[in-house]
Input
Amino acid sequence: MTTDDRTSPAPRPFGRTLCAMVTPFTEAGALDLDGAQRLADRLVSRGCDGLVLSGTTGESPTTTDEEKAALVTAVRQAVGDRASLVAGVGTADTRHTVELALAAEKSGADGLLVAAPYYSRPPQDALEAHFREVADASGLPLMLYDIPGRTGTRIEPDTLVRLAGHPRVVAVKDCSYDLLGIQKVLARTDLACYAGCDEQILALYALGAAGCVSTVANVAPEAFRALLDAFDAGDTREAAGLQRRTIPLTELMMASGLPGTVTAKALLDALDLPAGPVRAPLRPASPETTAGLLTAHGALTTALAPART
Output
């Protein structure tokens, strides 16, 4: 790929506005498939054209393989072909990752989100071999997930460039906080880049990214759809203004010292939307934190209201 001036859009294999959806649980802690279907339908109806299931925000470390498969099946029933479904299958074990990939394919997923194996910190050649084995195992396209702050291992730009030659490695979710590195990948490959850090969505989109995978979209899907719509329409000032309006809520949800799963579920519960408790070792947000989230969400909703009338 050479340059991207928006006259030839970036490839969007999984859509443009994706939400890293929480996994709703019942008050007893069981998987809430009805709640997942209602939440998924709401997100799609309000602007998301893709959903990432069983990512970190979806509490993948504490859901079983059977729950992950059931979640894909249930959400597919709810949204049909209105949105792409990307199933998180990344683990620290290549064999287990392959098993999850095959199960996701059987359950109706459109793609796979595969993070670098965590904790073991494999070198780049082993990391590349891991991704290739997963890509070879099923017929689904892969979105690689570069988030070294959680996994302990960076997917280096040169490794992404090599992996881009695999026919089923089609995208990367970027949480590297390395604008130079991701621009090198965009310049040298046709990989679709999805911004995984909510505060960087517009910045990466302006550089040629395909869109976003947003945690904050669980509670504000319209905001991120609107800012990308504004940019595509050539109104960069409006797009920048919309991105800035999301920052107070993004900061509380993603930079307050609590995982985004905790803050997203706290706010969804406060808004009487499907979420339920988090599973241990996570703990619920405090009432004070939830009150702050509600205030920030209310301010964003009020700011967006004129655009919807």
About this structure: Residues 1-8 have pLDDT under 50 and may be disordered. The CA atoms of residues 115 and 145 lie 4 Å apart. The first strand starts at residue 17 and ends at 20.
